[in-house]
Amino acid sequence: MSNASALRAPTAPATPAPGRETALRPEVNQAHVRFIGLGKTYAGQAQPALHGIDLNIRRGEIFGIIGRSGAGKSSLLRTINRLEQPSQGRVLIDQVDIAPFDEDRLVALRRRIGMIFQHFNLMSAKTVWQNVELPLKVAGVAKAERQRKVRALLELVGLAEKHHVYPAQLSGGQKQRVGIARALVHDPEILLCDEATSALDPETTASILELLRDINQRLGLTVVLITHEMAVIRDICHRVVVLERGEVVEQGEVWQVFGSPRHEVTRTLLAPLQAKLSAALQDSLRASPASREAAVVLKLVVIGELELSGLFKDLGGQVSLLQGGVETIGEHALGRLILSVRGSAHEPHHLLERARRWADDVEVLGYVG
Ligand SMILES: Nc1ncnc2c1ncn2[C@@H]1O[C@H](COP(=O)(O)OP(=O)(O)OP(=O)(O)O)[C@@H](O)[C@H]1O
Ligand SMILES: [Mg+2]
Fold it and tell me: Which GO MF term does the entry hold, naming one (predicted)?
């Protein structure tokens, strides 16, 4: 992956990773793609596929779009390169409204925006090399430059050895690498990924995500990514938006949204990532206390460090850890704990209040014993 520099002019300034500076003015700072009051209703459909979308995607970030099937994710993504025409509102790329673009400007725009797909969309009768070279040929790029470019890209995606084979001889992950190389031929500034890892096994997914992260960091590309796999969002996205029935229901930094999801849909989508209650605990949980001695079971989500001794003291009584673990999202530790509290002097709703002083999200799951 040493050839990334060959793909960009060496003098190009490095794009800063989204971080503290961008967080200062999140609404306006460095918007690369901006949706303003965006709506889309397909012909013959009573319900809009997208409605009132106001959203900024920042330059250089990996931005995730999640939501249930039919929520409008692909429709939203495809307005960025005008594969879909909005019915209302505007899409700005680098502050420029793309709605009035004529054919020529649209072709130029689509070269600035690469796209990869779930099913790779490779040409089966062309070799790996020819698949990557084709868009350059179509654009009238001279042969020497095409060769330099294809070689550098195949090197970047780790497929230099496979340049002469046909797609049928490649694994799914290798096909997607060709798709990525092809998407990068015009040095795009934005890469759109619609379910790009959905057809891959977990190990291959991990290697493709590593490649996307590498491209994001080395080339400073803005990546917009749709996936049904929440672990993909957790592992590589900086920020995420949740769509439901064509509207934004939640958005923010991944660690915040995953740490304390506010919307019901987000909670449902994220459920597979959360440790299931053990069968024994599930069986013994009651909605109300069976006796005065019953223990309250609390679920806590903590972003960052948790001072357990302080929490335990505040809850009072006998606190036991039933289940728990810590995962890392970006630079943030995210802890999930299930505790039982027995014999505390505090009423359950007071326990909840007290636990909230220490944790970012607290829920009473029920009672045991
Ligand atoms: N070309 C089309 N013509 C008519 N309706 C469409 C078209 N494309 C999408 N829709 C409708 O728009 C809504 C949003 O579809 P979209 O494909 O954007 O959802 P999605 O979130 O990408 O779903 P999935 O996760 O299943 O890919 C759906 O109700 C869908 O049926
Ligand atoms: Mg879709």
Answer: ATP binding
Q: Where are the domains of the chain?
A: 2-271, 279-368
CA distances from residue 66 to 91, 222, 267, 322 in whole angstroms, order as listed: 19, 17, 12, 31
Please tell me if the CB atom of residue 48 comes closer than 6 angstroms to any atom of ligand 1.
Answer: no
pLDDT (mean) for 271-286: 84
Which mutation among 45, 66, 78 tests ligand 1's pocket best, with the greatest number of atoms within 8 A of CB? 45
Query: CA-to-CA distance for 57 and 59, rounded, in angstroms?
Result: 7
Ligand 1 lined by 70 (C-beta under 6 Å)? yes
The predicted model scores a pTM of 0.83
Give the homologous superfamily in CATH for domain 279-368.
ACT domain (3.30.70.260)
Can you name the residues that pair with 215 across neighbouring β-strands? Answer: none
Q: What whole-number distance in Å separates Cα of residue 245 and Cα of residue 172?
A: 32
The pLDDT score that the predictor gives to residue 3 is 46
Top mutation candidate among 38, 69, 75 for ligand 1, by most atoms within 8 Å of CB: 75
Q: Which fold has domain 2-271?
A: Rossmann fold (3.40.50)
Ligand 1 within 6 A of 71 CB? yes
